Amino acid sequence: MEKLKSFWKRNWVGYFFLTPWLFGLFALSAIPMGASLYLSFTNYDMFTSPVWAGFENYSSMMQDSKWQSAIKVTISYVFLGVPLQLIFALSVALLLNRGIRGIKFYRAIYYVPSLFGGSVAIALLWRQLFGREGVVNVILSHFGIEGMNWIATPDTALYTLIILKVWQFGAPMVIFLAGLKQVPVELYEASKIDGAGKWKQFLKITLPLITPVVFFNLVMQIIAAFQAFTPAYIVSGGSGGPLDSTLFYTLYLYQKGFGHFQMGYASAMAWFLLIMISILTALVFVTSKKWVYYQE
Amino acid sequence: MHKVMKAFLLTFISTVLIFGLAACGSSNNNSQSENAVNEPSNNQAANEPAAQDEKKEPVEIRFTWWGDTKRNEVYNAIADRFEEEYPHITVKREFGGWGDYWDRLTTQIAGGNAPDVVSMHQFYVSDYARRDALVDLETVVSSGELNLVDYPEAAINSGRINDTLYMVPKGVTMPGWAYNTALFDELGVAYPDMNWTWDDFVAKVTEIKEKSGSKNIWGAPDGGGGQPQPNFRYFLRQSGQDLYTEDGKLGFTKETLVEWWTMWDGLRQKGAIPDATTGTEYENAPLEQNMFVKGLTAITQIPANQIYLYQQQFKSGEIRMVRMPRKEGGENGEYIEGAYLSITKKSEHPKEAAMFINFFINSEKSLELFKVEQGSPASTKMSEFVKPLLDPAQQRAVAFIQETLPYSSPAVYAPLGAAEIEQAFKDNSTSIAFGKLTIEQAADGFMKTAESVLK
Fold first, then answer.
1. What is the ipTM of this complex?
2. How much of chain A is helix, strand and coil, in % rounded to 5?
3. Domain at B57-173+336-407, CATH from 2.40.50.140, 3.40.190.10, 3.90.1570.10, 3.40.120.10
4. Which residues of B touch A120 (CB under 8 A)?
């Protein structure tokens, strides 16, 4: 008790200054999250009071074939989109890191897609780009290939969204750039004298030294990718179609909650998503001990 | 104690980190949702001072509808006139496209900040009525705010569910298949007959495709899937069935469903209707850019009140409408459709809301603008009043509605869970269109879902 008292005595000012933020945490995050946890164990249609249902929502989720396809779509999106995006971001960062003039300008330009990549306007633009008479098909026609509507074809629709994800490479790129700047120049000079080529330098010096940044970007982008909603919603017109090929997990969650009045089920889905992201993030953290190299 | 404190702090910090990450992760997606959320909350903020300031009793009500730019102009003008007439009442307006409209309304009603006066539709009213979200309008009729004297019994009854009056019609309309005479003349195809059958329909659609000789002109859009109303529902009613039964069960057999999908698949195999990809591409296209307006399909299925909107899109030819195809020897499929107005249960000003509805559906000042925007006015007096104001396309709509209305018979309202059933209908028919499922498989899949939803 004494210790607690002295703890408060020493720290109350700090907590006092934190109050606005604490208020936000509880009012906007913690309490709603608690409510959604409770609702996930109920049948709740948003109009009448929730009825306790135990684990019914969770168990019916496993048998829901649409839920299964939503999982599949989301996993492919994350596992294809994130690595591709990071590789692309790193490549651009490496290019920009070669001491070219006006780097600030290029950095800003390449960052722009990240700023509005998740917006409705870009998703609409994407519809146009990959439509039957879109720019992509116009370019393809110059090579004698007759394109199709990439967004309305079930086999290709998801890939257009993955390309959209890759195109938003700006944020990880900036972080990569910062990481690249940290790599000591002496190491490159020393290795050059020892006869290492560019590729070897990249593999043996650059890559190991920026692993903390890779790690950071990986975690951030995995979480962001799981939560992606806008592109699928706009590109498919809210349906997740054609044939559920763009039915992102969050999109199905939205349909269940607000289209089918099954807020309990939607809450259960949200918690499953949280658990899934946590497990995956934890896995990345655990494996990071093996591949992330911290200087000092 | 120290240990506990430490544990607490650790939990606390890790929670913070998770939230921090989550916040970063979602920041990309915020731009859209913010817009959507801002609008109602602004309105509510504006709402409060009005409610508190009792001196002049200024009242603010909110009114929402679905529609395109044109309709927004008309309804805004009607709300303006209402404000002139009742200076102490302000009408806040919210509007959006058909799809977004229902998503938002659900959210608002659930959140307890729904507009006072909401536009309603037969497809969705039972979702709200059965969940007790709407006011029984009989109360405002008996208190004198809402006057339904000029309304035929059938029109009023179309707004009743289980004997409670949940909505009143702004206008009643009937669906049909529309075509442009210019395109038919150009192709040398005879106009469809007012009382055609589904066999005639198939023949006509095929003929158009053959005569056009173009890769990019089809007879009709794919009507086998999408929303089961009105096409499939007419087909069911003509077969003596319906989407649902009175007691909330599925109202049709697998055989009828197979028969329906087989008909459309036949047209698809012949190339007389667009392939699945093209259909998906235009699925959510606005009126100005849909397949019919772009000249990709020669006929299209629309409600009669939209004839004039389509007419405005075409330089040549006349948009005319024929009945939904009949089933040889079958019953009439017709039932009254329309756009309705309801008052939400949580409304703080049901009296003013009723006054607004009354102004909207009964006053010449309003009907002068409304004309037949969402159907022919249900009030006999008002439908006489608007007649001389109509342009030829609107007159054709009214004539069509008056001709087909007598065929109509009451229709059952959807049970809870209808949204999921409609989704399954759409999903399975899309699977057929993309060749992923056979008709038999899709029908089985649909029946299975329907059974589990409607237990």
1. 0.80
2. 75, 0, 25
3. 3.40.190.10
4. 31-32
